[in-house]
Structures are given as C-alpha cells and as structure tokens.
Amino acid sequence: MIEDTELAMVPVRRLVESPVDAVFTLAPGDRALVETGESVVVGAPIAERLRDPRLEEIALTSTVEPVPGARWSRDGGAGPAGVRHTEDGGELLFTWRSRWRLATGDVPDPLEAPVAGIVRDVQPGTSITLRATGQGIRGVVTLGGPTRGKLRMATGASGGLRPGGLDVGLAGTILVVGTRIDAETLTRARAMGIRGIIVAGLASKERRDFLASEARQRAALHRLPPYAVLIMDGANRRPMAGPLMDIFELLAGREVAIVGDPPTLVFDAPELTLPTPPADLVRVRGGALLGAEGRWLGPAGLRRFDGGVHLEAGRIRLGDGSVATVALGDLERFA
Amino acid sequence: MTTEPRAFATVDLGAATVSVALIGKLDRSWRLIGSCALPSAAGADGAVASLVERLRRADPDLLDRLGVGGPDAGDLVRVEARSANARTLAIVAATERSLAPLVAAAQRSGWLTVAASAQTTDPLTMTRMLLDGATDAILAGATDPPAADERSALGELAALVAAVATRRPDRLIVLAGGMAERQSEFGDSTKRAGETVLAPAAGTGPAGDPLRGLLLELAGPSTDARRALGAAAAAIADVTDRRVELVEIGFDGATRAIAHPATANGPALLDLAVVPGAGLAPADPDDDVVDRVLAWSTVASDRHRLRDRLRELRIAPWADASGDGLDLRVAAAHASLARILEATPDMGAHGVPDLVVAAGGVWSAMPPSLVALTLADVIRRPGASQLVMDGAALLAPLGGIPEARERRAVIADLLDDLLVPLGTLVMPAGLRAGRPAGHVVVHATASAASTDLGSGDLALVPLDPGCGAIADFHFRDAVRLGGRGRGFALDVAGGLAGLLVDLRDVPMRLPDRADTRRELLRSWQATVRPRSHP
User: Fold this and answer.
1) Do A307 and B323 make contact, defined as CB atoms within 8 angstroms?
2) Residues on chain A touching B304 (C-beta within 8 angstroms)
3) What are the sequence ranges of the domains in chain B?
4) What is the CB neighbour count within 10 angstroms for residue A216?
5) pLDDT reported for residue A117
6) Helix crossing, B287-295 with B303-315: angle to 10°?
7) 39-68 in A: which are within 8 Å (CB) of B?
8) What angle in degrees, to the nearest 10, is found between the helix axes of B324-343 and B368-378?
C-alpha cells in the first residue's frame, strides 16, 4: 500500500494527449480565412498573416455600420469579422474623430493548417483555435512553426547532430535528434528544406542564436518555408526518454506536424498500437543521473542530500543493474 | 460524545509544492501532529494519504485517539489553500508619467503586467497588446484630473480601448482616475460578459491604497493562498502583540505582508502585497533576472548556463534540489526577495518588525540556516528582529479560515508549532569599516558568553530554539540600532540558526569581481551552516 502511495508521489508525464487544441496567433490586420465549426484539411489556408502591418486612417462612406474587428476593402465596404475575403483592405480597429484606424499591409503570408481538424474558435486579431484530428506528444517549447513533414530518426536516444550530418535528401522531413543540437545545425537544416527538429534539450545560447537567425530571415521579406524546433525536455543535455523514442520509431516514415501552442507533435495514426511503458519505469530528470532510466524499487524515506537538504527519496534499479537512491523530485514516470 | 472533529488536515497547494499537515486536538489544544512537502504533481489526496500512512506507522494509537479513520484518510476534514495562477493585466495610459504608478500598483496587487503608453507606442501595437490571447484584463488609467500632457491623447486612447472591449466582451476592463469619466464611450456595460469597473487614480504611499486594494480584489478569488497569508500575518500580530513582516516566495509569485497589532494609539494595520513578478522561477528569464541570480550564486557560471538552469528550474521545480541545485535555489531566492522589496518600497515605512516570517515552497527544501542568511542578505535595515519560518506551510490554510475569531483561536493554539524559530537577527548600521566593532555578551539562563565583533563580519552566536537570552552589545563607536548609541541590551530568542549579528554594510555592497564575490558569499554561508553540512 505504502509503496504504491509513494510511487504515486513521482510526477507523471503523459506520453500521448488527446484531443489537441492548437492555437494559431493572429495580430490585428491578419485575416482569418475560416469560421468556427469549419472542417479543414492538411495544407488548407486558414489565415493570412501580414508581414508588414501598418496603420492607416480612412473615412468610411458605407451605409453599413462598421464595427471594430470587421474587414474593410477599398471596393467592398465593411463586413462582419473574419468572413470577408478581400485583397486590398484591412481590419477596422477603432474610430476617432470620424475616421477609422485600419490595420493593413502589403505582403500577406498564408498560414496553412499543419493538421486536419475542426475550427473551434476564431478571434480576429487574436487567434484561431483548431481541434486537431489525432493525438499529440507534448514538449516544453516550440521555436518557429507550425510545420509538417515526414518523421525520420536522425540519431539514437543519446545521439547529437552536426551540420555535416545533414543532406538534401532529408528535405521535407522532421528529424528526431536524441540529446542536443546547435544553432548552426538548426539553421543549416532549415536551409536544406528540413521541416522540423525534435530534440530532448536545447541550450539557451543555441536557442537565442537560432531565433536571431530566424528573425534575420524574416526581415529579408521573402516567404520562409515552415520550420519548427520542438524541445521535449529542457535546456540541459540529456538523452531522449526511452518511451518517447519507442513512439517516434513507430511513427517514423509517417506524416506528423509540430504546433507551437501548446508545444506538441501531432500525429494521426489510429491504426497504430502505441507501446505502453511499464508502470514502474522511472526516468531521472535532474541531478548527476540526468536522463538515466530504471525500475522503481520502493520508497527510501526522507534522505539527506548534498548541501544538507532533506528530500523524500526512492530507490531505483538502473539499466546496468546498480541501485541508486534518488530524490522523488528528480524522477518522472510515464502514463 | 461530540461530533466536533478532533483532527483536520491542512493543504497548501502551490504551483510547485503541495504541503500537507495533520492537526490534532490534544489536551484541549490544537497541535501539529506531522507534516510533509512534496512536488505538487503528487496532488493533495496523495500527499494527505502518504502523511497519514506514515503517522499511522509511527504512532497508530495517537491517530486512533484523534479519530483519524480509514487508510486513505478520505474522511479527514481539510482546510485547503490554493495558489491561483496569476493573470495578465494589460495597462495603458496616455503618458509614461501616468503609466508608471499604474504599473507599480498592479505589479504588487497580484497581476502580471504588460504596459504601453500612447506617448511611446503606436495604436496598432497597443491594439495588438490588448487583443493578445495572453491578456486577461485591461486597465486604462489617467491622473485625476488628467494632466495637461495627457488630455490630448486620452480621447483616442479611450476609443482604442473601447473598441477592444467591444471585440473582447469577456475581458475585465478597469477605468482608473480621469479615464473613468469616459465610461460612456464604452457603451452599455450590461451587454458585456466581462465587468467594467471604475477605479480611483493611482498614487504613491497611502494615496495609492484604494487602487491597489481594488486590483488585489480583482486579481483572484478571496480564497487565494497569497491573500490568506495576509490574514494569517494579522492574526499572528494580534496573538503575539508584535509587529510582523511576512515574506513568501513561491514558484509563481511572492507575497509581502506587514501586520501591526492594535494599540492604544491606533487600530491594527495590515499592508499586503502580492507580487507575481517576483516568483522564484520566471517563465522566460531575461538578462535582468539572470544577472540578479548570478550576483548571489556561489557556483561559477556564465549567463547562458545559468539561464539554462533557471529554465530547468521552471520546468521541473523539484528536480536537482541538492548540491549545485541548492545553490541555484538560494541565489534565486535572494533575487526574488530583492524583487519583492523593490516592488513594495512604501512598505519600508512601517519600520523594523519584531518578527519576520519566511513562508513559501522555496524554503521547504533549504536548510534553516540558509533561510536566515537569505533574509539577512537582502532585507537590509538597522534593527533587531526574530526570524521564524512557516515550516509546515500552515499559514495560508489557517489564514483562509473565514471567521476571524476562529482563525485567531486556531493560530493561537498552534503558534509554537507553526512558527519554526530560526533565531534573532541583529543588524547595526553606521559601523566604521576595517576595524574591530566591539563585542557582545549573551546572557543565557546559566551562562554568559562573549563574542568579539568586527566591522563587515557576520557573527553567529549559538542559541538553541526555545532559549531566550539578553544580548549586551558594546560598540567602540556609536551605531544605529533602533536608536543611536554604543551600548545596547536586547532580548533575543534562539533558533535553528542562532543569534545572527550582521555587521555588514547597510545597504549591502557586493564586490564587482565575480570570483571575489563568490568567495565572500561562500564564507558567509560557511559561517551560518552547521559544521556537519558538506
């Protein structure tokens, strides 16, 4: 009884989640191309995002009472929010001294649905929420995206990827990289047409360098192909969790998508039976044994650790047969 | 036969830590039977069941006397406090000058903030900020009456906010000061799902209390754990008849409460600030956060590496809690505490408290001596205070008891159990650098011990928990310690750390060189930590 209770103290990581409500951010001036309740297929345009939004003032002569958030076009007047598809116009923001402030721009970038699903909510100027068909594997953060591609294993759970390990044959794929990757490899992967990277950890420096490179690319005013980096665990170097690798290997060769909010890998494979990890499998997510996996043996009670800290602990048997006493807070299990 | 429960459980469910305790009635008084703190992922039910099971194994007869039945303790009455997630308030004003006091008021009243003024931000960017999905509420404010430099921009600003209010009818809108006069531009508020609230203008000092109080009310439910801490601090001040300062550092926010008991000269005082931006682990640590933590770290690290560690702390707050992980928590606690003090400068005017209470999940995984040192490092003011810790995280649940008389009675019963004594901090100011400062003689019950004091030093005089003593200070030069003088006799109380005589600079000045600073920080930690700690 007590042992079950103590194992329950170990934080659970859900391997697969369903449903996944993916949120796509919109800014004032962006145009939603879908309505609530609409079904969308993979690749369908769901919005146009302005690359160069600006504010303009206009005097409306339309007999229709305009409202904030409505689309306005130079030839068609104002209409309800989110339904009027016009090429030359913008989004009405507010009226001041009989003139409307309009969010508009010259260069729209289409936002295509990376997953099939049903539109749950459209808030012009704020977001589109899409309930994806399929299941998701949650990470901790997504950089860039959304994107879609064929999943491919680039390394094992403990492997890393260098620029030399990339080639054009990988274009269109989303690569699973075990431990860690640097910013140079990330930017090179984008240049080679790779659609995404899934990695266990990405250091803050690499993250910053990659995001700076992305910002420079976007400033160049040419449309970028979709690309995303999904970080599964955090910032430190550690192997990808074994149960995750098992699922990735099963999904290899299939089309998957990465969305940013929530940071998730989405896949639609109802015919697959996903592997279930043993209930007593635990993984170390902090300290000297970071990334190690083992089997739960039982509680070790309150233990004194380095620095005079007293923490609840448990005993685990590692892969090499040794037994370690690890703070419960350093462990995670899977469900 | 009575139907009154003889035991109940307290649960403090935070973003990172769940703390549970079993309280039982023994000899007509409530007493703390046992407690534990676990990662919040364990959940309240699991934590209570685990605690009861352990207590049953340790003393089954006691649990039977208390009437704690079933193995899962499902029938146990619970007093629960839960930390609500801080919401984001988008603040807009006409000028930077009028924006600053609004932001300061909101940041210490339970809100995360984003802010922009018409003076520096174009309407498109401002609309984007207000429409952002992460924004939960909007505060539009002006001075009352609006100043000359605000008037020209207020009309357009009101039109912009009113348009957003139309588009997002679910959002709470607060119109403060001169902006409240423009309520008519926001149309019929009864047609909106979200409230439209009129508020007083922002101000500094007591003049700002009405807006701060209103924003705190709007920030979250009245049962929120951080607000309950204010009620608990007031009850402790009332029960002990002492001036109390409570500082709580949590994963997602922090609290500072100052409570004074009622006296012949005035009513009781409670000044409460909830500062979500001062949490231990900010979601996206910027350079300012990283530098603040780096300044208090004893482990050599660069910015990138430290940012990595802070991100890991955010993702898994209980992981890597010992060794270098402990250093990270201690340094991050210093940075959080400094941010609380910066967000609440007005609260310093209440004077030096008699009792400083440390509460919050961050302390639960830290040796008590380091808790005392952290408080001494950051709260720099001349005077003497007793330091205690909410060791079993009882204050938030007990502070949440709705009936004041009942709350006071339970806290009075449990006072000796809920406040873990850390010791007494004595901090004189005005010492001359680089020379002996004098000495202190501590007169305990059966003995007297003299300790030499050096300017700039941190001296620890062992004094066990529960022991009281008179500390006779003799300084070579006049210092400030309450009043100004060379000789002081103070009543001091012992604790897990002891009597801490802090002769370092007030305010603190740390060396600029990182290696020198780390060495100094290590030496201070070595002074207060028990020899057995590695």
Assistant:
1) yes
2) 203-205, 208
3) 7-82, 87-219, 225-528
4) 10
5) 97
6) 100
7) 53-55, 67-68
8) 40
CATH of domain B7-82: 3.30.420
Nearest CA in chain B to A91: B124
Q: Assess contact for B333 and B269: CB atoms under 8 A.
A: no
Write down the pLDDT at residue B499: 95
Q: Using one digit for the tens of pLDDT, what is the confidence trace for B314-354? A: 999 999 998 889 999 999 999 999 999 999 999 988 999 99
Digit-coded pLDDT (tens) for A198-214: 999 999 999 999 999 88
Name every residue whose Cβ is closer than 8 Å to that of residue B407 and which is 6 or more positions away in sequence. Answer: B231, B232, B235, B398, B399, B401
Over the stretch A292-301, which tens digit does the pLDDT of each residue have? 999 999 989 8
Q: Longest Cα pair distance anywhere in chain A, in angstroms?
A: 80
- Rounded to 5°, the CA angle A135-A136-A140 comes to 170
In this structure, the dihedral spanned by the alpha carbons of residues A253, A254, A255 and A258, taken in order and rounded to 10 degrees, is: -90
Under 8 Å CB-to-CB from A52, ≥6 apart: which residues?
A105, A106, A107, A221
User: Is the CB of A5 less than 8 angstroms away from the CB of B50?
Assistant: yes
For chain A, which residues make up each domain, given as ranges? 2-11+276-334, 23-113+120-127, 134-267
d(C-alpha A291, C-alpha A285), whole Å:
6
Looking at residue B176, its pLDDT comes to: 96
What residues of chain A lie within 8 A of the CB of B365, using their CB? 309, 311
Give the pLDDT score at A153.
Answer: 96
The HSE-up count of residue A239 (CA atoms within 13 Å, CB side) is: 17
Mean pLDDT value of segment B3-21: 90
Q: Which chain B residues in 127-166 lie under 8 Å from chain A, judged by CB atoms?
A: 127-128, 131-133, 155-156, 159-160, 162-164, 166
**Residue A57 CB: number of other CB atoms within 10 A?**
11
- Which residue in the block uniquely carries the two structure tokens 């004098």? B438
In this structure, the dihedral spanned by the alpha carbons of residues A204, A209, A210 and A211, taken in order and rounded to 10 degrees, is 90
Q: What are phi and psi of B62, to 5 degrees?
A: -65, -45
Residue holding tokens 């739960």?
A296
What pLDDT digit, counting tens, does each position of B444-462 carry? 877 788 999 999 999 999 9
Residue B518's pLDDT band, with cuts at 50, 70 and 90, is: very high
Q: Please report, to the nearest 10 degrees, the dihedral formed by the alpha carbons of residues A55, A56, A62, A67 taken in order.
A: 20
Please report the ipTM that was assigned to this predicted complex: 0.89
Fold of the domain built from segment(s) A2-11+276-334? SH3 type barrels. (2.30.30)
**Is residue B41 within 8 Å of B278, Cβ to Cβ?**
no
- Contact assignment for B49 to A5 by CB distance below 8 Å: yes
Q: Which of B46, B159, B367 sits opposite A309 (nearest CB)?
A: B367
Instruction: Report the interhelical angle of B287-295 vs B324-343 (nearest 10°).
Output: 110
Q: Which pLDDT score is estimated for B514? A: 94
Q: What is the mean pLDDT of chain A?
A: 90
**pLDDT band at residue B72, thresholds of 50, 70 and 90?**
low
Residue A80 has pLDDT above 50, yes or no: no
- Across the interface, do A203 and B53 touch by the CB < 8 Å criterion? no
Is B168 in Cβ contact with A309 (below 8 Å)? Answer: no
The sheet that has A281-284: what strands, in order across it? A12-13, A331-334, A281-284, A293-305, A309-318, A323-327
Q: Which fold has domain A134-267?
A: Glucose Oxidase; domain 1 (3.50.30)
pLDDT digits (tens, 9 = 90+) for A141-191: 999 989 999 999 999 888 888 888 888 899 999 999 988 899 999 999 999
Q: In CATH, what class is B87-219?
A: alpha beta
Give helix B368-378 / helix B514-528 axis angle, nearest 10°.
Answer: 130
What average pLDDT score do residues B172-190 get?
A: 90
Only one residue has tokens 């989110």, namely: A82
CA B248 to chain centre: 2
